């Protein structure tokens, strides 16, 4: 299948010193590697967002992504279901081989489904 037809799952994780975010990134790495054969991680990206008060706030993030082995145009529901599951439960594996459970409450990350 041509690369342009593949769906891509991108996860944006804050680049914070807290161990929980490093573990989350490692867990997504294991999830994508075992589920789809690999992934790419880009660390230390610079960004910004507007606070509730309207002030521009600098932000550092890490990006991890994987290409799904099917076209988004013909398997949108499957890809959307997978990303919803990731948002609710997080990756299936932790960096130590344990399942990460729960709704990932208290952690901030964004998942994007793209072509």
Write a concise keyword list for the protein shown above.
115 residues; 28% helix; 36% strand; alpha+beta; globular; 4-stranded antiparallel β-sheet; Alpha-Beta Plaits
Characterize the structure shown.
There is one protein chain. With 115 residues, the chain is an alpha+beta fold. The chain has one domain (3-114): Alpha-Beta Plaits, CATH 3.30.70. Helix content is 28%, strand content 36%. It has 2 helices and 4 strands; from the N terminus they run E-H-E-E-H-E. It has helices at residues 19-36, 76-89; strands at residues 6-14, 40-50, 56-71, 110-114. The protein has a 4-stranded antiparallel β-sheet with strand order 2-3-1-4, covered by helices on one side. Strand 2 and strand 3 (56-71) form a beta hairpin. The two termini are 13 Å apart. Mean pLDDT is 81; it is low at 94-105.
- Rg, rounded, reads 15 Å
Distance between the termini: 13 Å
Provide the number of structural domains: 1
Tell me the CATH topology.
Alpha-Beta Plaits
- The secondary-structure class comes to alpha+beta
Number of strands: 4
DSSP summary: helix tally: 2
List segments where confidence is low: pLDDT < 50 over at least 5 consecutive residues: 94-105
**Overall 3D shape:** globular
Q: What is the topological layout?
A:
Layout: E1 6-14, H1 19-36, E2 40-50, E3 56-71, H2 76-89, E4 110-114
Antiparallel strand pairs: 1-3, 1-4, 2-3
């Amino acid at each position: 299948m041509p690369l342009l037809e593949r769906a891509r799952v991108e996860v944006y994780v804050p680049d914070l010193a807290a161990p929980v975010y490093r573990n989350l990134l490692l867990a997504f790495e294991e999830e994508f590697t075992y589920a789809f054969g690999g992934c790419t991680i880009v660390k230390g990206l610079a960004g910004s967002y507007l606070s509730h008060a309207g002030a521009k706030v600098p932000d550092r993030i890490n990006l991890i992504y994987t290409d799904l082995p099917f076209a988004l145009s013909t398997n949108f529901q499957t890809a959307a279901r997978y990303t919803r599951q990731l948002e609710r439960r997080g990756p299936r594996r932790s960096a130590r081989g344990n399942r990460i459970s729960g709704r990932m409450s208290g952690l901030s990350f964004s998942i994007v489904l793209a072509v």
